[in-house]
Design goal:
This protein is 4% helix and 38% strand. It has 411 residues and is mostly beta strands. The protein is rod-shaped and about 125 Å long.
Length: 411
């Protein structure tokens, strides 16, 4: 009678979230651990299964690196049957989250792995399966969501970014960015496979003309945890960054807003005219980045908005009626006759956003445009001169004291 005893076998396979097996460079830097009692590890006669046993308190462990995982056949005659071991991922491959630990035994009759799975509703469920003597770990790639909003919590588009691997002091580890992107019409970006356990330096390299630009040296620093499942905003240097969820960051932007005023005077004696009423409209779509950019680059209102003065009022956003006071002055800061909704449903008194306005009164309609933080002229008439919040310094208003035909003058 011949009795043959076969050595136990243990092999391991790492897969991505879609089930593809990771090999070669995809496993670079990855480390896995099999932990158990010291006496439960055997020295194999197979030279390819020789290993170094590390001590960890009352237990010992074998460290599996990318080199060990390249060996054919796995560990032969190293693990005992009927004994519980614990498998854990110490360092995930670059671009992947760290998987949870799992306990297993080797069945004495079949040689197959028997896994001690967590409850189905556990956040640690669903990562491990087995195929005979092979343990399979399926991990998700790391992801970061970066969004942008302004001071009134409204989404911001048309920003460009570069993201660098960084040191704790904010300096770049590499001169080439790990990620770079232009949001275009989008207001957020999901970054796939950033490396866990690293610091990142975020630079905003371009912004829409609707927003106050940051300096080229400004940046924000954040970190991605070692398990790749959470992020922390570390420091802000000219760019404000806020954590919104485990893997979500919000960049803050400052939208440029202006306040406008008008003084109506008698043509002959220049006395202030009280109780003159004007209706103010925001021209549809004129507050969008592409239209504001075109105006800033010298585009003509008439070309961007044909027949502007003749257009029907209901096509645009009505901001309210504004009536001059005893000094002949009206101001958007006072909010007009209603709590209105110039900028993303915010009161007009907070300022108007860049774009084109129509001012309609008893003497006709006038085209205005909002540029450089102020409300300035259209192509023919000047009725409204804007000022940054807090007012112009000295007589910095470019139209102060100038007369324009019989229509009035700026304040």
């Amino acid at each position: 009678m011949v009795i043959r005893n076969y050595p136990t076998v243990f092999s391991f396979e790492k897969r991505d979230g879609e089930g593809n097996v990771l090999t070669g460079d995809a496993l670079k830097g990855a480390k896995f651990r099999i932990t158990g009692k010291t006496e439960d590890f055997l020295q194999s006669r197979d030279t390819s299964s020789r290993y170094t046993l590390h001590s960890a308190g009352n237990e010992s462990y074998i460290l599996l690196t990318e080199e060990e995982m390249k060996k054919e056949g796995g560990l032969l005659g190293v693990l005992k049957t009927g004994v519980e071991y614990r498998f854990s991922e110490e360092v995930p491959p670059r671009g992947y989250e760290k998987g949870p630990a799992i306990s297993f035994t080797i069945n004495a009759n079949s040689g197959n792995l028997e896994l001690k799975q967590p409850a189905n509703n556990s956040p640690e469920a669903g990562f491990y399966t087995s195929d005979g003597a092979k343990l399979i770990l399926k991990d998700n790639p790391t992801r970061i969501l970066i969004s942008e909003e302004d001071q009134n919590a409204f989404p911001v588009s048309h920003s460009s970014y570069k993201l660098y691997l960084a040191n704790r002091d904010g300096s770049k580890k590499e001169e080439s960015p790990a990620f770079s992107w232009d949001n275009g019409e989008n207001t957020e970006k999901t970054l796939e496979k950033p490396v866990a356990g690293e610091y990142y330096r975020l630079e905003r390299t371009a912004q829409s003309i609707l927003y106050q630009k940051n300096a080229t040296t400004d940046y924000a620093l954040f970190s991605l945890s070692k398990d790749g499942k959470s992020i922390e905003a570390v420091e802000s240097h000219g760019i404000t960054l806020e954590k919104r969820a485990d893997r979500s960051l919000m960049v803050k932007a400052k939208r440029i807003l202006a306040e406008g005023s008008l003084t109506k005077l008698d043509r002959i004696d220049e006395k202030a005219l009280e109780k003159a009423t004007f209706a103010l409209y925001q021209v549809k779509d004129s507050g969008k980045a592409d239209k504001a950019e075109a105006l800033e680059q010298g585009g003509k209102i008439a070309d961007l908005y044909p027949n502007l003065v003749l257009r029907k009022p209901e096509n645009d956003l009505y901001l309210g009626d504004f009536t001059t006071d005893e000094s002949g002055k009206l101001s958007t800061k006072n909010g007009g006759n209603k709590q209105n909704l110039a900028y993303e449903n915010k009161p007009l008194s907070q300022g108007t956003t860049r774009g084109t306005l129509l001012l309609r009164g008893d003497q006709g309609a006038y085209r205005l445009q909002h540029r450089n933080g102020a409300i300035r002229t259209g192509e023919e008439k000047v009725l409204l001169c804007g000022s940054p919040k807090g007012g112009w310094k000295s007589s910095a208003c470019p139209f102060s004291g100038k007369r324009f035909g019989s229509r009035g003058r700026t304040s």
